[in-house]
Design goal:
The chain is an alpha/beta fold and 387 residues long. It contains 12 helices and 16 strands.
Amino acid sequence: MPVINSIAALEPDMRAWRQWLHRHPELQFDLPRTAAFVADKLREFGVDEVHEGIATSGIVAIIEGQGPGPTIGLRADMDALPIHEASGVPHASETEGKMHACGHDGHTTMLLGAAKYLAETRNFAGRVALIFQPAEEGGGGGEVMVEAGVMDRFDIGQVYGIHNAPGFAEGHFFTTPGPIMAAVDTFEITITGKGGHGAMPHDTRDPIVAALGIGTAIQTIVSRNNFASDDLVVSITQIHTGSADNIIPETAFVGGTVRTFDTHVQDMVERRLAEIVAGQAASYGVTATCRYARGYPATVNDPDKAALASKVAADVVGAEAVTGDTGRQMGAEDFSYMLNARPGAYLFLGSGPGPVLHHPQYDFNDAIAPIGASFFARMVETAQPLT
């Protein structure tokens, strides 16, 4: 059962929708034009209900099937990134400093394509809830929508999402049972010493030397404190200090990210960071504070739902183009909050060669939009068939 013919015929329309969204990127929860565009399309398609303003700019649309049954949720993220676009495409961002560099314009388009098909055919039992979510890029919009009660309010029993994957074979699906993406935490270390003249370091307590010592010591958390079989990444991504070549500054800042799958590993990293910062600060004669913030939890697929998703994907693109045990990766996703609330699965859809996600030259591959839309539609028809 390949890509649905009527969805394939929608490809020019879907391309136009996606490129309009790409030209008009908006950030986090502030998505007035994006949300209005989506809501207008949904009403045009004839969905039964459009609920706007959830988590500020989120939307849940309901399509009723042809018989009684449960409600299945399908999710797309809508927000862009604060990046200056350098793709050079005709439909490049018209808003300086903002661009769809992660393909959320494509995800929204795929779900709109599925919405049009499902509203026209209604070849399923129960209901489908189309979830258009703001603020995946750091705002935790998935969590906010769950806390706003969308799962209970709309009686959603299972939920599915897709993310495009540059660098992977175009049209191939990848998923896995259990954890598929990591939890993401952040740390911020502020070091305070005594500044002074660069030629007289003996009169100072140098926060730069302390920052370098702390940065080196942090590397031992993975290499010497963590059990080798437990996946863990601790990356220092920021060091800020200093203003001139002859001034030893008063303060320094070190920041970074932590990626884990197990809470006991998170606990260990948080504890060891605090111990290392305190010990290193004492050894260099400075003071230091360490703020550790837990972010998105791990994205964990329900094994049965992941198997069902793989079957549906195989129906759309063929079994040879589906990998159902791809393993887990250290990126993070706030779809994790929805999977914590309801069983479901998250999949990657290969988009072929091209710049990676979050790159200023990235652009979504419009050729895969009908594939993703067909997966969403077939998932509803397969999970909730008419008897």
